[in-house]
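Feature request, filed as a ticket because there's no other form

It would be nice if the structure record came with a short human-readable summary line next to the tokens. Right now we just get the raw output. Example of a typical job, pasted below so the devs can see what we mean:
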Amino acid sequence: MRSIIQQALNNGLLDILYQVLLLGAALLIGASWFLSLESRATHLAVTGVIALSIGLFFFLIVALDYPLRSSIGISPRSFEVLQTTLIAPQ
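Raw output as currently delivered:
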């Protein structure tokens, strides 16, 4: 049981997922420039809101990348309860 928990501690998102997220973010911001808005300031504001949203999503993904290590992640309490109730030694 200890090795499963140790393995879970060291597993994070794959690098390819970060690359896909970055490519998608660049495409979304690039596609926003095809919107036809009357004012350039409005266009910049819309693009800024999109970029801010993407930035917040990236922050959340990076913060929760290792959910068993970070302070905002999952506590080990649920694993301890599982170990004592379901996987009790015979």
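Something like this underneath would help us a lot:
DSSP finds four helices and no strands in the chain.
The mean pLDDT is 78.
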